[in-house]
Design goal:
The structure holds 2 protein chains of 2 kinds. By secondary structure, chain A is mostly helical. Among the domains of chain A are: about 40 residues; about 120 residues, no CATH class; about 80 residues; about 180 residues, 3-Layer(aba) Sandwich (Rossmann fold). In chain A, helix 29 links the parallel strand 5 and strand 6. Chain B is mostly helical. Chain B has 2 domains: about 90 residues, no CATH class; about 80 residues, no CATH class. The chains are: A mainly alpha, B mainly alpha. At the A-B interface, helix 9, helix 23, strand 1, helix 24 and helix 26 of A face helix 1, strand 1, helix 2, helix 4 and helix 7 of B.
């Protein structure tokens, strides 16, 4: 039984293996056959079904990702808002207005087309006459070019369908050049005078209508913006539109916010990777500096240095440049020449042999001790080349050209590198050891500089990586998603306020209504789209800006410090030390001087509006000054640049007089509005100073280029002048021209100083404390960063993003 | 109430703007627009106030023969420009535009160009070595001036380098210190107004 079973088993095993192999072979064959065919049977329909299903086959099934689905939904919702807008209302409002703008343009004075046509004819006639005269070639060219344009316009090939003779930007420039050239030539050529006199007013006229046309287009565009934007303007946006936009934005913002952990990881990884790279560069520089001895100052082993430089990433170009700078060699290196020679020669009949021989001969020549001068070398080369020429025959152009090229391009000193690498006769090239030494020093410096630059670059990259915050990544994500969403939107197309619109209006084109409606749709679509982007952005970035936490804490600290200083100053008012400000001490004397001389005091607050801190500070000073003026029974004049500031200044002066107990002395007419233009104000104020000859002139506030004009006028009038501004660029002018100048924060402290009011004295003390604290932080940060560039705590603390 | 309401308004506005720097959102975006529009409106009202002020001032000047001719000229020009603007518009090519471009702009350029002469005159007065500080200033300014012209480099190749160093290092550091001090002073003043401690602008 046992043996029979064994046999049976063996037979079964054989059969099994045989059957297995057969089945496997069949399966493999079947699979091979089917693998050649499309897997989906439906994709290879028979001819009948092709016709029936052609539509479905032609349109590939697009499988959207989850993100794309979300974006598509957002786009659909957006389009729903857009489609829900009825253009009719805005169309009815705007069409008459647009028409009125166009009509107004065409009906003001002479009709532009008519006028331009007349002018074009004048231009043509005069140009042709001028071209018949003896004129310079330049003028002839300029006239011919413009004549072409004029002829084209007269023949009906208008550049602008809505205005004959319309000038493009390029035509403006040409006409300007022509105009200038005519005037220039007229000085030497009196025969063209009458033409010049005729042409110049025509140029002016034709330019005027083109500028007017562009201005009309701008006015139309502004009007359309004003009306279409009304529905989606932020402050007055319709609730319905606002809610829908916010709904879409919230959904998308959720998607962006889901990625916060991913962003956090990315930020950390980027910082770590930048840090590792920075550290590696530092180490490399350190090693390089340690390995300075590798650069054997006097050795010929250039290959070693070359490999070291290559190893740290210095490019061939830099090394060659350094070499060329050192030895003043040409641009073609010996290596290039050798390569060129071999390449050219090898490709010809005797190439291989000649190339080898030539190479050998060249090396022999270079190593030959008989060569002392460059001429020896050239002579040697010529001998070799003559030999080769004889060998290959004179008709071998390639060889002749190649050898000629070698001689042509071969700079004798170019061979230095070649020579040095092969330890060949240095004397041939007469390069001294000092030259080699200098060159090698430079090579070392080049390597060190390269590593230093790399270190700085990677350090900056590390700092940059640390500045990246989640908000920045979110912002980038918002931009990306809005791009995806735009892909699913259907834009109404490009319609602009242009000459086509005006042309259609003029011609009362049958498709005018459709064109204007499409224009309004496009405008509304763009407005809505930009609003949606803002909503989306703010929905994502909604909330506290964590990256400004340092400023938030600093501001709270500053508030606390302020109250501490304020209460301390109040308690120790009499004992507190206030540093002297000579400019303010002088104000008493200056006002007294005005009283003695019986002349007025002129006070101005510069160009700032009332939102400028300097103007506010100036107003506070004005009150104190006015009080002193009232006490001294003097007169103060205040010319204003800004009408709003004028109101405040009037109030300040009146308060100052009231504080002094002489409100009746205040002359309201001494405060007046001068002009709201920089140089007109400077001229007006200078004139006022020159006429009134004030005893004192005070300038406190924001100033620009007019500072010197004003203060020099005061100097010329012999007034005592005190000025104050925080504009660092204008301070030198005031310091030069005025008797006293308040620099920087002294302007803000001036009111406190003059009044010695406990409430405002804290201003001065707090500024001083602030300077000490922040100054100490700056110094500490600088010292720490100098010791170790990784200790960036203080620089981080004081950084704003 | 006359004082409290402005102080309260100042406080609320201060809080809103302080918050705007730290908090992002549509409310803050709208707030910016609201205040920008408000300022524009105030500016327009301000123009009316300015015109009234000019008219009143010049009326009295003409009436009491106080610089009468200047006043007459000024008022005439104002009314002429208003008249030209109203009758023919302000676009290019109109008499208004011509007056602006051909009269006003050259005057403006003339006043600006006076600056060059004033700078020369002021520099002449200030470049005197009266003390150590002014001597330092004088030397530094001579070097900087020489560094900006070709002849400086011709005299000594290091002059442009030194001039650049003066501008980039000591001058730049001083300028930054002034700006920094200015900001600190400005912040302090704003805190005072923010908390209603500074009331002199409210005539208190």
């Amino acid at each position: 039984m046992f043996s029979g079973n064994k046999i049976k088993f063996k037979i079964t095993e054989k059969v099994f293996m045989k059957r297995f192999l057969i089945i496997f072979a069949i399966l493999f064959s079947v699979l091979s056959i089917f693998s050649q065919q499309p897997s989906d049977a439906a994709a290879v329909p028979d001819s009948a079904s092709v016709t029936a299903d052609s539509a479905s086959v032609a349109e590939p099934v697009i499988v959207l990702s989850d993100e794309e689905k979300l974006c598509k939904q957002a786009a659909d919702d957006f389009m729903e808002i857009y489609n829900g807008w009825d253009v009719t209302r805005d169309y009815n409002i705007l069409l008459p207005r647009i028409t009125a703008y166009a009509d107004n343009y065409y009906k003001t004075g002479t009709e532009p087309n008519e006028s331009n046509l007349k002018d074009l004819k004048i231009l043509k006639e005069n140009y042709e006459n001028l071209l018949g005269l003896e004129i310079s070639e330049t003028l002839m060219n300029l006239l011919s070019i413009d004549l072409e344009r004029v002829n084209a316009e007269l023949e009906g090939n208008q550049q602008n369908p809505a205005l004959i003779g319309y000038l493009e930007k390029i035509d403006f420039d040409r006409i300007k050049a022509l105009d200038e050239f005519l005037v220039k030539e007229n000085k030497t050529n009196s025969s063209i005078t009458s033409y010049v006199e005729t042409l110049r007013p025509v140029f002016k006229n034709i330019r005027r209508y083109s500028i007017g046309f562009d201005e009309m287009l701008t006015a139309v565009y502004n009007e359309i913006t004003r009306v279409t934007d009304k529905r989606v303007y932020f402050l007055y946006i319709e609730d319905d539109v606002k809610n829908k936009l916010q709904e879409i934005s919230v959904r998308l913002a959720d998607e962006v916010n889901k990625k916060i952990p991913e962003y956090k990881k990315k930020i950390t990884d980027d910082i770590d990777s930048a840090y590792v790279r920075k550290q590696r560069a530092e180490k490399q520089l350190e090693d390089f500096n340690k390995g300075k001895s590798k650069f054997k100052n006097n050795s010929d082993d250039f290959n070693l240095e070359y490999n070291i430089l290559k190893g740290i990433g210095v490019s061939d170009d830099d090394i060659i440049k350094e070499f060329q700078d050192n030895f003043n060699v040409g641009r073609i290196s010996e290596k290039e020449i050798a390569e060129y020679t071999l390449k050219e020669v090898e490709s010809r009949k005797y190439a291989s042999k000649i190339a080898q021989d030539l190479n050998k001969d060249l090396i022999n020549l270079l190593t030959s001790s008989g060569i002392k001068e460059q001429s020896d070398f050239i002579e040697g080369l010529n001998t070799i080349f003559e030999g080769y020429k004889n060998q290959v025959g004179n008709d071998s152009e390639v060889l002749v050209q190649t050898l000629g090229k070698v001689i042509e391009n071969l700079d004798f000193e170019n061979l230095l590198f070649f020579k040095a690498n092969r330890r060949i006769n240095r004397d041939v090239l007469r390069v001294s050891n000092e030259d080699i030494f200098t060159f090698k020093q430079d090579l070392f410096n080049l390597g060190a500089k390269h590593l230093e630059d790399q270190k700085k670059y990677l350090y900056a990259k590390w700092i940059e990586a640390r500045k990246v915050n989640i908000d920045k990544l979110k912002s980038a994500e918002v931009s990306r998603l809005t791009g995806v969403i735009s892909g699913f939107m259907t834009s109404p197309g490009q319609y602009d306020v242009n000459r086509t619109l005006i042309n259609k209006l003029q011609q009362k084109s049958p498709d005018l209504e459709e064109y204007v409606r499409n224009l309004l749709r496009a405008k509304f679509y763009n407005d809505l789209n930009s609003k949606f982007k803002v909503y989306f952005r703010f929905e994502v970035e909604n909330g506290f800006r964590k990256f400004r936490i340092n400023i938030f804490i600093a501001s709270l600290f500053f508030f606390g410090l302020f109250f501490y200083v304020f209460s301390t100053v109040k308690k120790k008012r009499d004992s507190i030390y206030i540093r002297r400000i000579p400019g303010l001490d002088a104000i008493d004397d200056a006002v007294g001087r005005a009283t003695e001389m019986g002349k007025p005091i002129i006070y101005d607050s510069g160009l700032g509006g009332f939102s400028s801190p300097q103007t506010i500070a100036s107003m506070l000073i004005l009150r104190s000054v006015a009080k002193k003026v009232a006490e001294f029974k003097a007169e103060i004049i205040y010319p204003a640049y800004d009408p709003v500031v004028l109101q405040v200044a009037e109030e300040m002066i009146a308060s100052g007089f009231l504080d002094a107990g002489y409100p009746e002395d205040h002359k309201k007419d001494n405060c007046f509005f001068m002009v709201q233009d920089q140089f007109a104000f400077a001229a007006g104020l200078s004139g006022l100073i020159a006429r009134k000859k004030p005893a004192t002139a005070l300038h406190f506030g924001y100033y620009a280029a007019e500072s010197l004009l004003i203060s020099e006028a005061g100097f010329a009038a012999g007034a005592i002048q005190v000025a104050g501004t925080t504009e660092a660029t204008q301070l030198p002018f005031f310091i030069t021209s005025c008797d006293y100048t308040l620099i920087g924060e002294e302007l803000y402290a001036a009111a406190a100083y003059l009044s010695r009011d406990a409430q405002v004295l804290s201003n001065l003390k707090l500024s001083d404390y602030g300077k000490v604290i922040f100054g100490a932080l700056f110094v500490l940060g600088t010292v720490l960063l100098t010791i170790n560039s990784d200790w960036t705590f203080f620089s981080d603390l004081l950084s704003t993003y | 109430m006359k004082k409290e309401i402005p102080i309260l308004l100042g406080l609320i506005t201060g809080i809103l703007w302080y918050g705007e720097f730290f908090i992002a959102g549509m409310f803050q975006e709208n707030q910016k627009l609201f205040f920008a529009n408000g300022l524009k409106i105030a500016g327009v009202v301000g123009v009316a106030v300015g015109v009234y002020s000019v008219a009143r001032q010049n009326y009295y000047k003409i009436k009491y023969n106080n610089e009468r001719y200047y006043a007459v000229l000024r008022v005439t020009m104002i009314f002429l420009m208003i008249f030209l603007g109203v009758t023919s518009g302000t676009s290019s090519g109109t008499p208004f535009s011509s007056m602006f471009m051909n009269v006003y702009v050259p005057f403006q350029a003339t006043v600006f160009s006076l600056l060059a002469f004033y700078i020369a005159s002021a520099a002449y007065r200030s470049f005197k070595a009266k003390s150590i500080e002014s001597a330092v200033l004088l030397i530094a300014s001579i070097i900087v001036m020489l560094s900006k012209i070709p002849v400086g480099g011709e005299m000594w190749s290091q002059i442009p380098v030194i001039g650049e160093w003066i501008m980039d290092s000591p001058s730049s550091a001083g300028r930054r210190a002034i700006i920094f001090g200015g900001y600190l002073g400005s912040i302090t003043m704003m805190i005072r107004i923010f908390f209603g401690l500074e009331r002199s602008h409210l005539s208190e």
